[in-house]
Amino acid sequence: MQVSLVCSDNHRGGGVTRTTEERLNQRNSNSPSLGTKNKFRAVAMVARSLGQLSVNIPSSSDQSIRTGMKYRNLGKSGLRVSCLGLGTWVTFGGQITDEMAEEIMTLAYENGINLFDTAEVYAAGKAEVVLGNIIKKKGWRRSTLVITTKIFWGGKAETERGLSRKHIIEETVRAMTHVINQGMAMYWGTSRWSSMEIMEAYSVARQFNLIPPICEQAEYHMFQREKVEVQLPELFHKIGVGAMTWSPLACGIISGKYDSGVPPYSRASLKGYQWMKDKILSEEGRRQQAKLKELQAIAERLGCTLPQLAIAWCLRNEGVSSVLLGASSTDQLMENLAAIQVLPKLSSSIVHEMDSILGNKPYSKKDYRS
């Protein structure tokens, strides 16, 4: 399994160190292959807030006001994150140059994003290094950033992967509590854990006076809904676990670029993404593309693009603290950020129309009883 933390330092390349005073103050206050996905249901993320965490809007607040960036609490914690975050999977250290990564991250920061997501497995660790180097070069105040990273697939050796000595939930909770108590993290959460596993982690924390997770990072888009819309809301009300979601465009499938097949230089054409290409060209993939054409008509009525509609659709879920974006260019990032302006246009009638097209709205047991 894997776990998420909110850490106080970035010890990777370009990371920054803290003074003893800062430590004391803080204490006091490639996606994996399909086969790997099947083997490891849970992916953990570590959220590192560089330096002392501030719940205030970042120093780019003037920009965030102009772009309409909104901030939400992560679950029932006091951690305030931008409703849109920037992910680095595939892009940083891989699909794009370091220079382009810096342009994208700078634009994101200047437009109010304070949440940046990475993982030790992304580009074999290079994504974390690129992220750390950019932060060091830009000289941004550490207290304005929340960095989430995921741990599990560290290296090839047996001792370089996993979460704990025994790789079981109790050991994981103890390990994350130790990390937080040592001042290396402020919070921890999970990613791709089942509701039962998250609940067990919470129970273990309460039983042994340890620190429970505050969020679950889950895939969420118009073609994958049940976990975020049915399971996580129950966990939020019971134990305060929030939702941080990724892949709002379903790895680009919802962007509309695949309506006529797989174009060159798209993600599905990259080495290692045959699984995605097969999915797009499958019968189910063709049905999804047909639904996207109907949704495109709604986007045109609202005066937005299909990706903006899809991202706004994710944001309209009040149980989602932050939606992680992926971008390979500044133009793409700016287009995605404009989804915030589309959110007010999603009336109940529009959402109902979209649900009718998608035909996959999940229902909880409570819905069935009513």
Summarize the topology.
Layout: E1 3-7, H1 20-28, H2 34-39, E2 46-48, H3 61-67, E3 71-73, E4 80-82, E5 84-87, H4 91-95, H5 98-110, E6 115-117, H6 126-138, E7 146-151, H7 169-181, E8 185-191, H8 195-207, E9 215-219, H9 226-239, E10 242-246, H10 274-281, H11 283-302, H12 306-315, E11 320-325, H13 330-337, H14 339-342, H15 348-358, H16 365-369
Parallel strand pairs: 5-6, 5-11, 6-7, 8-9, 9-10, 10-11
Antiparallel strand pairs: 1-7, 1-8, 2-7, 3-4
Helix pairs in contact: 5-6, 7-8, 8-9, 11-15
The sequence of SSEs as H and E is EHHEHEEEHHEHEHEHEHEHHHEHHHH
Mean pLDDT: 81
The poorly predicted ranges are 1-46, 48-63
Instruction: Tell me what portion of residues adopts beta-strand conformation.
Output: 5-15%
SSE class: alpha/beta
Quaternary organization: single chain
Distance between the termini: 36 Å
Quick rundown:
This is Voltage-gated potassium channel subunit beta-2 isoform X4. The protein has helices at 20-28, 34-39, 61-67, 91-95, 98-110, 126-138, 169-181, 195-207, 226-239, 274-281, 283-302, 306-315, 330-337, 339-342, 348-358, 365-369; strands spanning 3-7, 46-48, 71-73, 80-82, 84-87, 115-117, 146-151, 185-191, 215-219, 242-246, 320-325.
List its salient traits.
370 residues, alpha/beta, 8-stranded mixed beta barrel, two-stranded antiparallel sheet, 16 helices, disordered N terminus, cytoplasm
What does this protein look like?
The chain is α/β, with parallel strands linked by helices and 370 residues long. The chain has 16 helices and 11 strands. The protein has an 8-stranded mixed barrel with strand order 1-7-6-5-11-10-9-8, surrounded by 4 helices. A hairpin with a 6-residue loop joins strand 3 and strand 4 (80-82). The chain is globular and about 55 Å long. Residues 1-46 and 48-63 have low confidence and may be disordered.
